[in-house]
Design a protein that fits this description.
alpha+beta; FGGY_Carb_Kinase; kinase activity; xylose metabolism; carbohydrate metabolism; kinase
């Protein structure tokens, strides 16, 4: 019999990615399928689950299975992950009833957030659920659905996230991992690690809640219909999966207390692992990936998406922008930027915040703007790390992962935070973590799958510049917040 292979697929905001990994951790095949996120109204972000989640998954899997050296019969297990927390309402048979409402970038439920916070009490919500109610929470979006789309709500019996829909389509099981559930505030009890039944019925009466499992736990096997749709062998084990950032943490082994992952992607995301519940009103307190573990999480609304906006605006390409920005000294020749171009999540929790560039002169160009954008996201990372420390989280090491993990961006973050970052051999991210989780569940040794191959140390000269700029960054938001809010409220 051939050596076992482990398949992982992640459904991202702008693309789906998959890998096939050997038992020794070597990636044998990769596949990527881009897709689009719908924005039917300002502040709304949606995915059509049939085409973006399920169709992408089947297409990626079939491409992987057709790759050279991959035999479908050798696939020993499947791991999945996806963006989240999301809300996909479905009927009793699991059929989607509308497009999925995405994670914290979707800000439609602001009224319901305020209403539930007043109704249940901010302190009690934080104490029981571990997080304040923000645009990241699923509970307010459930109430929004019941109030704003009553016909859809009348038929809603289940809800899915990207990973749990894939698990359902592959196995028929209605399961959700503990971590994803812990972001369904206020429906989950963080200390008890179970559904908060009384609040769940209060927020979403009649909704059937999925059975809970840990991300790396096998919850079923591929059934006949799924085997026909994907080409996977019938009977292949499938793990519960989780939200992409936590699969990313698994991909680089950042799962122990003191480990902090910095994920460079369309949005910047950070996770700080611990062995006890951690709470902070400006962060998300959740369960971790391993059974019984906990986590503090932070997420910025833009990072890579901001640099993409600049690329498109200037008609350039990333290679050119990066080369030009590398010739610009730290401080972007007097420019300072707030990266709140889509509002902001942690630690300000302000969906009405707006992007700001100050210090512009006629001598500035796209290179300075690009450098200022990288520095803005680096200052955002520093702001979130300070909140982690305030909450009592240990930050023993930073591990970088994602598309920007080996670039000027990483060097800027280390200089702005004063902290070195470990860079692993494989930075493909969540899909690799999915494969690692299912491999571990089936008994494979994944300890040496992804060794650290480089360390990005802070440049002390840059650090001195950023230490003077960071207080100005913090002050800029406070000084312009009311203007940003007024402009946001006046926009059509």
């Amino acid at each position: 019999m051939s050596d076992p292979l482990f398949l992982g697929v992640d459904i991202g905001t702008g693309s789906s990615k998959g890998v096939v990994v050997r038992a020794d951790g070597r990636v044998l095949a990769r596949a990527t399928r881009p897709h689009r996120t719908a924005t039917p109204r300002p502040g709304w972000f949606e995915h059509d689950a049939e085409t973006v989640w399920w169709a992408d998954f089947t297409a990626v899997v079939r491409e992987l299975l057709a790759a050279e050296g991959v035999a479908a019969r050798a696939v020993a297990g499947v791991g999945v992950s996806g963006i989240g927390p999301c809300l996909l309402p479905a009927d009793a048979a699991g059929r989607p009833l509308r497009p999925a409402i995405l994670y914290g970038v979707d800000t439609r439920a602001t009224a319901e957030i305020a209403e539930l916070t007043a109704e249940l009490g901010a302190a009690e919500i934080l104490a029981r659920g571990g997080s304040p109610l923000t645009s990241q929470a699923v509970g307010p979006k459930l109430r929004w659905l019941a109030r704003r789309e009553p016909e859809v709500w009348r038929r809603t019996r289940r809800f899915f996230m990207a990973s749990s829909l894939l698990v359902h389509r592959l196995t028929g099981e209605y399961r959700l991992d503990h971590h994803s559930a812990s972001q369904c505030d206020p429906l989950y009890d963080l200390d008890a690690r179970r559904w908060n039944e009384d609040w769940a019925q209060r927020v979403a009466p009649g909704l059937g809640l999925p059975e809970l499992a840990w991300p790396g736990e096998v919850v079923g096997t591929v059934h006949a219909a799924a085997a026909e749709a994907t080409g996977l062998p019938e009977g292949t084990p499938v793990t519960a999966g989780t939200i992409d950032a936590w699969a990313e943490a698994a991909s680089v082994g950042a799962l122990d207390p003191g480990d902090t992952m910095v994920m460079y992607g369309s949005t910047m995301f950070l996770t700080a692992m611990g062995d006890r519940p951690m709470r902070h009103p400006a962060l998300w307190g959740t369960t971790g990936v391993r059974p019984g573990s906990y986590c503090l999480a932070a997420g910025m609304a833009t990072s890579g998406s901001l640099t993409e906006w600049l690329r498109d605006l200037t008609g350039s390409d990333f290679a050119t922008l990066l080369a030009e920005a590398e010739r610009i000294p730290p401080g972007a020749r007097g420019l300072l930027m707030l990266p709140y171009f889509a509002g902001e999540r942690t630690p300000v929790f302000d969906p009405r915040a707006r992007g700001t560039v100050i210090g512009l002169t006629l001598h500035h160009g796209r290179a300075e703007l690009y450098r200022a954008a990288l520095e803005a996201t680096a200052f955002g990372v520093r702001h979130n790390l300070e909140a982690f420390a305030d909450a009592g989280a240990r930050i023993d090491r930073l591990v970088a992962v994602g598309g920007g993990a080996r670039s000027l961006w990483t060097a800027t973050v280390s200089a702005a935070t004063g902290r070195p970052q470990c860079v692993p051999a494989e930075t493909v991210g969540a899909s690799f973590g999915d494969a690692a989780l299912v491999a571990g569940a089936l008994g494979a040794d994944t300890e040496d799958w992804n060794p650290v191959v480089a360390t990005v140390a802070p440049d002390e000269e840059w650090r001195a510049v950023y230490d003077t700029r960071y207080p100005l960054y913090r002050e800029l938001y406070e000084a312009t917040r009311h203007i940003g809010h007024a402009l946001a409220d006046s926009a059509p």
